[in-house]
Write a structure and sequence with these properties.
This protein is of the alpha+beta class. The protein has one helix and six strands.
Length: 124
């Protein structure tokens, strides 16, 4: 995925311990996580089918505003989305930051964890 000067290649992500722990139902999501993930993937597949610019569907979006770089991902294990906001000093191929799992129930504390994203060329 490359949009207006954003990173190309592959990324590898790791997350620390989530506080509070990730709990799909507890955070107000009404449907089973597997059903939501399948629906979101079907929508992405239909939207990006045949689009040369999609490069394998956009399951992540790089954002930058006022010098703050963020990454929004929609993993199958948390399809509501995880937003990673990178530390100001984090530059280059290894980016460290804070992740927040988006939740349906705003009255609940959103799970948070430290995150590391490593950008590298894709193999093959």
């Amino acid at each position: 995925m490359a949009a207006q000067g954003q990173p190309t290649g592959c990324v590898r992500m790791t997350f620390g311990v989530w506080t509070p722990p990730l709990d799909w139902q507890h955070n107000g999501h009404p449907d089973a996580i597997a059903h939501v993930a399948a629906r979101l993937r079907a929508v992405r597949d239909s939207v990006y089918a045949g689009a040369a610019s999609a490069q394998g569907r956009d399951e992540m979006q790089w954002l930058e505003s006022r010098g703050t770089r963020q990454l929004l991902v929609s993993p199958a294990w948390w399809p509501a989305g995880v937003l990673v906001t990178f530390d100001a000093a984090s530059r280059g191929d290894t980016l460290d930051g804070d992740a927040i799992a988006l939740v349906a129930d705003g009255a609940r504390a959103a799970p948070r964890a430290r995150a590391r994203v490593i950008r590298r060329p894709c193999n093959g």
